[in-house]
Amino acid sequence: MRQKIVAGNWKMNKTLEEAHILTAELMGMVADEVKGNVITVLCAPFPYLLPIKNQLGNSSIKVGAQNCSEHDSGAYTGEVSATMLKSMAIPYVIIGHSERRQYFGENGKLLATKVDKALANNVTPIFCCGEPLEIREKGTHEALVKQQVEESLFHLNQEAIQKVVVAYEPVWAIGTGKTATSQQAQDMHAVIRQHIAAKYGSATADKISILYGGSVKADNAKELFACADVDGGLVGGASLKSREFVEIVKAIG
Ligand code: 13P
Question: Less Cβ crowding at N or C end of the chain, within 10 Å?
C-alpha cells in the first residue's frame, strides 16, 4: 500500500510565536483524532524548522522545508543546502513549487539538481509539478506535466525514484479557491503514474505517493483523497488553521 501523506505548506506565513501555537494545537488534535496510516508534515519557513522540530519531539508529525539550494555549501548568501537540512534531521523538503518556478525562475534542470541534493542527504523531496491556466485552456496540460516530471526526475535510477514524493499542483488552483475537480485530479495523477510506469515499470510507479495541491479544504478533501491515484495532499492556506488542517488529515483515513 502506498504511503499516504498530508503536508501543510505554510509558505511565508506566521511569526515564530504563531507557528508554535499552531503546532501545539495540531499535536493535540493529531494525537487524539488521526489514525496511524498517514504521515502529517509541516513545511515551515527555514528559521522555524528547528524550533518546530524540537517542539514536535517524538510526535508522529514531521517537519519539512520549503526549498533547498542546488549547492552543497559555499558563497551563496541567503541559501540553505540539503546538507544543512540533513544536519538538522529534517526529513522532507518541497522542491519546485510553482511559486519558486514563477517568482524565482527555477527550471526543470535546476530542480533535477535540487532533487539530487535532497536524495544525497536522505531528505525526501516533495517534487511539485503542475500547469498554469493558459496551458490547461490550450489542452496541453498533460504534455507539460509529463515534461516537468521527465526533466527533473527521469535521470534518477530505479531505487532513487522510489524515494521521491510527487505533488501535482495545478497553478490555477493554488490560493484561488478554485480546486480541481476530483476527476481532473485523478486524471492527471493517473497520467503521472503511467508516465513513471512507462520508464520504470508499474511496480515502481505503484509505490510512489502522488499528492494533490491547490485549494484543498476540509470540505473537498474527502472527495479528492478518495481518488485511486491521489495519495494525499499538499495544503497551503488551509494548513494555517489547526482545525481545518486536522479535518483534512482525517479525511484521508
Ligand atoms: P492553497 O492550498 O492555498 O491553494 O496552496 C496550495 C499550495 O501551493 C501548497 O503547496
Answer: N
If one residue of 97, 133, 166, 169 were mutated to test the ligand 1 pocket, choosing by the most ligand atoms within 8 A of its CB, it would be 169
Residues in contact with 86: Cβ distance below 8 Å, sequence separation at least 6, in sequence order: 121, 122, 123
pLDDT digits (tens, 9 = 90+) for 12-32: 999 999 999 999 999 999 888
Nearest one of 192, 242, 241 to 212, comparing CA atoms: 192
Check pLDDT > 90 for residue 208. yes
Q: What is the pLDDT of residue 186?
A: 98
* Ligand 1 pocket by Cβ (under 6 Å): 9, 97, 169, 174-175, 213-216, 234-238
Domains of the chain (ranges, CATH numbers): 4-251 (3.20.20.70)
- Residues contacting 209, CB < 8 A, separation 6+: 2, 3, 4, 5, 165, 166, 231, 232
Look up residue 6 and give its DSSP letter. E
Which residue carries 479557491 as its cell? Answer: 177
Of 119 and 178, the one with more pLDDT: 119
pTM over 0.70: yes
Q: Where are the beta strands (DSSP E) in 92-227?
A: 92-95, 124-129, 165-168, 210-213
What is the model's pLDDT at position 33? 81
